[in-house]
Amino acid sequence: MAALFTGKVLMANRERDEVETERELGRTLENKVLLLYFGSGQCPRCRQFSPLLKDFFLRLTDEFYVERASQLVLVYVSRDETEEQQSAFLRSMPKRWLAIPFGDAFKRELELRFAVSEVPAVVVLKPNGEVIVGNAVEEIQRMGPACFRNWQEAAELVDRNFLLAEDFDDCTRRSITDPIRRLKYKLDKKTEAKNRERKEEGEES
Questions:
Q1: What residue stretches are annotated with the Thioredoxin domain (predicted)?
Q2: Would you say 127 and 34 are in contact if contact means Cβ atoms under 8 Å apart?
Q3: Average pLDDT, the chain
Q4: What is the DSSP string of 51-72?
Q5: pLDDT digits (tens, 9 = 90+) for 30-69
Q6: Among residues 60, 48, 55, 95, which one has the least CA distance to residue 76?
Q7: Residue 201 in 3-state DSSP?
Q8: In this model, does residue 178 exceed pLDDT 50?
Q9: Contact yes or no for 125/116 (Cβ under 8 A)
Q10: Do the beta carbons of residue 112 and residue 137 sit within 8 Å?
């Protein structure tokens, strides 16, 4: 995936840090599904979709929602008219988002490469740069975080330890001794029933 950004600059959201060396890019993007979000803070459809994408991203990467962050990276490719508009939009989005610097001609290259003609658009890529979904906006709206599982399988990522918080809660509610306790409960019930039968037989005799 780093090959896509070789010689390019990515900005860390709300920071002045640049992620630009091949080693840094490799570490940031290695073994991860990459989302390229083409959007604008001024576009009405983007204003509707962006909060949904923000929630989608947080539910997959924020420790409040997941035991462990999923293998997901998002790069914002803006169509904002000014740098101030881009900065204002990014301030309202997750800190883990990356962005193409405002005015970088590489944005246009990406639009042409992935045939993006309108926004919002979310291009989903494998770690090797192959396209998984040409535009996942509708899929994200329809399925929410569940669609990441499909992308993860399509990308053949090494690490498959992905749990949504609600899945994790379900797991923690059932302790490892649960099957034993259930079995003991059944046996106790059977013993109680037998004792009751014997008692009734004794009273009759």
A1: 1-142
A2: yes
A3: 81
A4: HHHHHHHHHHH-TTTBSS--SE
A5: 889 999 999 999 999 999 999 999 999 999 999 889 888 8
A6: 95
A7: helix
A8: no
A9: no
A10: no
